[in-house]
Design brief:
Layout (H helix, E strand, L loop, with lengths): L2 H16 L7 E8 L2 E5 L8 E6 L5 E9 L4 E5 L11 E8 L1 E4 L7 E2 L18 E4 L22 H6 L9 E4 L5 H11 L8 E7 L3 H13 L6 E6 L5 H19 L4 E7 L1 H14 L13 H9 L3 E2 L8 E9 L8 H9 L2 E5 L1 H5 L12 E2 L8 H7 L2 H15 L7 H16 L10 H12 L11 H15 L1 H10 L4 H17 L4
Parallel strand pairs: 8-12, 10-15, 10-16, 11-12, 11-13, 13-15
Antiparallel strand pairs: 1-2, 1-6, 2-5, 3-4, 3-6, 4-5, 7-9, 14-15, 16-17
């Protein structure tokens, strides 16, 4: 047998091996620490591929390939890495990381990988469909403009910083200023909407006790009937905290693809960035500003870009994202806050000084903005709240000026009276969400000077009594506003009559 024949025979043998469908790529762990494994022998591994590790007891643990080096693969362990050792076997699965999603998830609590963790039993696999955690965001052609309101039930937001279905509105502020309270109130309020969106609350790096309290409150308020909670607590590995928002987003996309609306809260992406920084540094990726990896902006942009509203030809579903970011000493110009501000369509900025002064929710109207604006408002809200932000801005500047002198002209006094009443009216305790028709009615009364005779200290008491009177004696007016989402001239005239009647015959009687 000559040399050429031998070579041809060897080539044939090699090609037969390569084309074998049963062929498996197996490697072994070279180094493992803090939930990160360096693996050799997996030259065919893909980015974001699931790897199957075999522990000391022969049990399977999954990992995720994130670093593809020339002679090794860096992977994060999606489980207990203490059961793995150097030399443990690793197998390529050929599958990109995905999770099972279905309608059965509604009302359940899952972990960062979509696995049930509320103790109520598993979901049947036959009812589930697998969705990838990483997915390219819908293109411009498949989207339509944001024009349908997503009401929060919070007067200051619905009137001045409106949110639309398909929008990404950032909730930003120092710790303990009410960021989570706004998100939870928004979820609870969705039960009062005509078209209730599926809500997903993603808790990243929080205490288990806090998440349990939130779940209990959502159950008590009936909100778990349309809510899914994804929890990657502070005690979970950084890998699960890193994946939790993508898990929540995959669940939201499942409902969006069915033509439904979804609302997802990421609480919070600061801790998500911390988890990603920890993973990246352990994978020996070069640190950049504040030790964050260079792609931390891309991390959040590819997550938040998946929110949007699809055009009718593609089902008409939507994902509305409410990411939460924690600032240090109110510094919104820090690295992560500016990153997420530039990705989102506006921000609700909560200020510690306002919170401590008793203004709840502590929204700084000057620094808060919605880039969708009145496109995401009903006609009724546009009519009553159009000048509200400007009136409050003028009030703040005049109030500062008025401290230096007592002789004020009538126009200035009138502006101060209006501003002080509007400011008092915007105060709202947690779990006191209101429908947009109630908000429109009371703001209409205040903005048109119908409350000028009411002492500022009594405004909130007046509001409660007036709305109770409106519901009891004139329910048709509220129903008309709710059904038409407008304030016609006839409805405005009727409201003026009702307010005058209430002020004369019922207030303080």
């Amino acid at each position: 047998m000559n040399k050429n024949t031998i070579i041809e025979e060897l080539k044939k043998e090699i090609s037969d091996i390569t084309n074998d469908p049963a062929l498996e790529y197996v490697g072994e762990v070279v180094k493992i620490s803090d939930g990160v494994a360096i693996v050799s022998g997996l030259s065919k591994a893909k980015y974001s591929e699931m790897l199957e590790f075999t522990d000391m007891d022969g049990q399977k643990i999954f990992g995720l390939a994130l670093n593809l080096e020339e002679d090794s693969v860096g992977a994060i362990i999606l489980g207990n890495d203490l059961r793995l050792r150097e030399g443990s076997k690793v197998r390529s699965t050929g599958r990109i990381l995905s999770i099972p999603v279905s309608e059965e998830l509604i009302g359940r609590v899952v972990n960062g990988l979509g696995e049930i963790k509320d103790g109520k039993g598993p979901i049947e696999e036959s009812k589930s469909k697998f969705y990838p955690l990483e997915k390219i965001a819908p293109g411009v052609i498949t989207r339509q403009g944001v024009s349908v309101p997503l009401h929060t039930g919070i007067k200051a937001i619905d009137a001045m910083i409106p949110i639309g279905r398909g929008q990404r509105e950032l909730i930003i502020g120092d710790r303990q200023t009410g960021k989570t309270a706004i998100a939870i109130d928004t979820i609870i309020h969705q039960g009062k909407e005509k078209n209730i969106p599926i809500c997903i609350y993603v808790a990243i790096g929080q205490k288990e006790s806090k998440v349990a309290q939130i779940v209990e409150k959502l159950k008590k308020m009936g909100a778990m009937d349309y809510t899914i909670v994804v929890s990657a607590s502070a005690s979970d590995p950084a890998s699960l905290q890193y994946l939790a928002p993508f898990t929540g987003c995959a669940i939201a996309e499942f409902f969006m693809d069915q033509g439904k609306d979804a609302l997802i809260v990421y609480d919070d992406l600061s801790k998500h960035a911390w988890a990603y920084r920890q993973i990246s540094l352990l994978l020996k990726r070069p640190p950049g500003r504040e030790a964050y990896p260079g792609d931390v902006f891309y991390l959040h942009s590819r997550l938040l870009e998946r929110a949007g509203r699809l055009s009718k030809e593609y089902g008409g579903g939507s994902i509305t994202a409410l990411p939460v970011i924690e600032t240090q000493a109110g510094d919104i110009s820090a690295y992560i806050p500016t990153n997420v501000i530039s990705i989102t369509d506006g921000q609700i900025f909560l200020e510690s000084d306002l919170f401590n002064s008793g203004l709840r929710p502590a929204i700084n109207v000057g620094l808060s903005v919605s880039r969708v604006g009145s496109s995401a408002q009903t006609k009724a809200m546009k009519k009553v709240a159009g000048r509200m932000k400007l009136d409050l801005a003028q009030f703040r500047s005049l109030a500062a000026f008025a401290q230096f002198g007592s002789d004020l002209d009538p126009a200035t006094k009138k502006q101060l009276e209006l501003g002080s009443r509007l400011t008092e009216l915007l105060k709202q305790l947690q779990y006191e969400d209101q429908s947009f028709n109630e908000i429109a009615a009371i703001i209409f009364a205040a903005a048109n000077g119908l409350l000028n005779e009411i002492p500022v200290a009594d405004i909130r008491k007046y509001e409660k009594k007036f709305l109770a009177f409106l519901k009891e004696r004139h329910p048709k007016v509220l129903e008309t506003i709710f059904e038409t989402a407008d304030l016609s001239d006839e409805t405005q005239a009727k409201l003026r009559e009702i307010v005058a009647d209430f002020n004369t015959n019922y207030w303080n009687k």
